[in-house]
Design a protein that fits this description.
DNA binding, 5 helices, mainly alpha, Transposase IS3/IS911 family protein, elongated, transposase activity
Length: 109
C-alpha cells in the first residue's frame, strides 16, 4: 500500500484537535482522522505545544468559558475533521454508485 502524505496544515490541525479535545486519546483522534496512531503521536511530539488544555488533560469539562480564540481553534480543528470525513464518505459513495451501475448492467433478467 502506498504511503499517504499529509499537508502541514492537516498535521497542525490534527495536533490542535488532540490537544484541545477533552478526554481525547491518540487512538481515538487518529481513528477519526483516518491516520495511524504512530503518525499522530509523531506529529504531537514534533508540532505540539506540549500542553493540553486543563479540561482535555483531565478528561473532564472544567465549566469555565473558553476564550474566543480557543473556541475558534477548536471549531476549526473540528471542521477539518468533518471535512476529511465528508470527503471519505463521498468517495465511498461514488465507489458504491459505480459498482451498482456495473452490476445493474451485468444482469439480464
Amino acid at each position: 500500500m502506498a504511503r499517504k502524505s499529509y499537508t502541514d496544515e492537516f498535521r497542525c490541525r490534527a495536533v490542535d484537535l488532540y490537544e484541545s479535545t477533552p478526554g481525547a486519546t491518540l487512538q481515538g483522534i487518529a481513528a477519526d482522522l483516518g491516520v495511524s496512531r504512530g503518525s499522530l503521536k509523531g506529529w504531537v511530539d514534533k508540532l505540539g505545544s506540549g500542553t493540553r488544555t486543563a479540561s482535555a488533560a483531565a478528561g473532564v469539562s472544567v465549566g469555565r468559558r473558553e476564550s474566543q480564540a480557543a473556541r475558534i481553534t477548536r471549531l476549526e480543528a473540528e471542521n477539518g475533521v468533518l471535512r476529511v470525513e465528508q470527503a471519505k464518505l463521498a468517495e465511498e459513495r461514488d465507489i458504491l454508485r459505480q459498482a451498482a451501475k456495473y452490476f445493474a448492467g451485468e444482469t439480464s433478467w
